[in-house]
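During the reporting period the student researcher (J.K.) took over the structure-prediction task from the postdoctoral fellow and processed the backlog of single-chain submissions. One of the processed entries is reproduced below for the supervisory committee.
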Amino acid sequence: MYKSIAESVLFVEELIKLEIPGNCQVVVCPPFTALHAVSGVLRGSPVALGAQNMYHRGEGAYTGEISPLMLKDAGCRYVILGHSERRQYFAETDLGVNEKAASALERDLCPIVCVGEVLAEREAGDTQGVVEAQIRGSLAGLTSGQAEKIIIAYEPVWAIGTGRTASASDAQQVNGFIRKILDSMFGRGAADKIRILYGGSVKPDNAAGLMEQPDIDGALVGGASLDVKSFAAIVEAVSLKLGR
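J.K. obtained the following structure tokens:
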């Protein structure tokens, strides 16, 4: 919940002036109020537009909600679902995320489905159990073909906005575990195609180490994305992993 419409427009104007590596998919997800204006600036650029959340219904008497059709109309191609802050502050559940993911796919929006454990769960040794339950619940009922279109973001809640970051090896361990769960659900072919991101205090100075890991395909960037140069440096780290 940062940046006015004018600030959001200025951000993407500065971003698209930079050289965006051709081997990366770069997505910005501004507040709902800025989506339309930002979409106009991004038109014809290599940077795609996404939203931070949505409701699963296409329309109806759901005052205060935003539908996938509204997001499409505003120019979105991606939508973040089940972010830890949505789960923590707004009591979102795996079932709700599952409904949203299916709805997004039906409307040709790419869901970025977030999963991750809180500090107490990590300290109790429950990371894998929590993450597996979230993956299976959030993606229940999807076909392998649908699953291939989804992006997963592992975001350990204890590392978001705290300055604490999972070590590259810790992040890889969980991302690799997620890949195995996806394999068991949808088959190896689909599991290899699904991109698994890491999110949690990703910054320019730790991005390269994270991106070196085989099962970390990119980053879901929080606070560091508020500054264009910082965000661009993280994009560069992803590009180097992909062999720019």
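The committee noted the following: The chain has two domains: 1-16+25-76, 82-218.
J.K. will present the remaining backlog at the next meeting.
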